[in-house]
Design goal:
The structure is a single chain. The protein has 60 residues and is of the alpha+beta class. It has a domain of 36 residues. Helix content is 38%, strand content 13%. The chain has a two-stranded antiparallel ribbon with strand order 1-2.
């Protein structure tokens, strides 16, 4: 499970060390690498607080 809190990515991972390693190696690490194509989390980081800068309060 993942989400955004105060313009910060938050990920909740399974408890076993193997599952955490799989999540990091297979999903999170590539997504936090700006070179990962065709898209990655790094590309949208500047937009995480966009709704706050516009004065909106809607969360989704």
């Amino acid at each position: 499970t993942g989400g955004v809190v105060n313009a910060t990515f938050v990920f909740v991972l399974p408890g076993s060390p193997g599952a955490c390693k799989d999540a990091w190696d297979g999903i999170l690490k590539p997504q936090l690498d700006y070179r990962h194509m065709p898209c990655n989390f790094v590309e949208i980081m500047p937009r995480l607080d966009e709704h706050l800068r516009r004065g909106g309060t809607k969360t989704s």
